[in-house]
Amino acid sequence: MKQFWNDRYAEDGLAYGAKANDFLVSCIGDISKGKALCLGEGEGRNAVFLAELGFDVVAVDSSEVGLLKADQMAESRGLKIETIVADLADFKIEEEGYDLIISIFCHLPQKLRTIVYKQCVTGLKTGGSMLMESFSMDQLKYKSGGPQTDRLLYSLKEMKQLFTGLELVVAKETVRELYEGKYHTGEAAVLQLFGKKK
C-alpha cells in the first residue's frame, strides 16, 4: 500500500485538494487548541489548517512523498508541522499525549483499526477531542472515492465500540457531497464521529 500512496501523491497537484475536510472545519469551534495528531495525513491539508489555527501539529503517514508535500504546504504559509513517516501498524500513540486526534478518510483493516483507535482513546488527554470521518459500508454504492471493499469500510456500531471512553457529540452515518480533490468528489456515504474524553 505504501507504493500505491507514494505513486498517487507523486502526481501533479494535490490528490485531495488543499482545503481542510469539511467535517473538521464544522467542529473546530468546539475543540480546544493544543497538541494535535493527524493520522494518515497524506499531503497535509488538515494538518496545515490546524497549524494555521495555532495547534502544535504532528502528522503521520506511511508515504514520504505525501508528507514532503505537507511540509512544503506548511512552509509556503510560514508554518511548521512535525511529520513522521510511519506505518500505523508500527506507530505507537503516546498515552495522554494529545489534545486532539483526527482520522480523516484513513481506512485500516479491522485488526489494525481496533488497535489504532483504542490507542487514540488512551492517547487523548482528559477533555481532549477525537474526530473521524470515513466512508461507511454504503459507499460501495457510490463512485466518489474510497476503498472498493467492505473490509476497509467502517460501521457506526463498530466505531462506537472502539471509542468507548469518549462522550460522543456527533456519531452518525450520512450521505453528503464531497469536494476534496479529484479523488473525493461527488455524493458519498460517510461515517462521522466527534467525541471528547471524559
Task: Describe what this molecule looks like in 3D.
The structure is a single chain. The mean pLDDT is 97. Helices cover 28% and strands 31% of the residues. 43% of the residues are buried. Strands 3-2-1-4-5-7-6 form a seven-stranded mixed sheet. It has six helices and seven strands, in the order ααβαβαββαβαββ. With 198 residues, it is of the alpha/beta class. The longest helix is centred in the middle third of the chain and has 14 residues, at 110-123. It has one domain (2-197): Rossmann fold (3-Layer(aba) Sandwich), CATH 3.40.50.
Based on secondary structure, the structural category is alpha/beta
What is the N-to-C order of secondary-structure elements (H for helix, E for strand)?
A: HHEHEHEEHEHEE
How does CATH name the architecture?
Answer: 3-Layer(aba) Sandwich
CATH topology: Rossmann fold
Number of helices: 6
CATH C-level class is Alpha Beta
Uncertain residue segments: none
Count the domains. Answer: 1
Per DSSP E runs of 2 or more residues, the count of β-strands stands at 7
Quick one: CATH superfamily? Vaccinia Virus protein VP39
Helical percentage: 25-40%
Question: What is the topological layout?
Answer:
Blueprint: H1 2-9, H2 22-27, E1 35-39, H3 45-52, E2 56-61, H4 64-76, E3 82-85, E4 98-104, H5 110-123, E5 124-135, H6 156-162, E6 166-179, E7 185-197
Parallel strand pairs: 1-2, 1-4, 2-3, 4-5
Antiparallel strand pairs: 5-7, 6-7
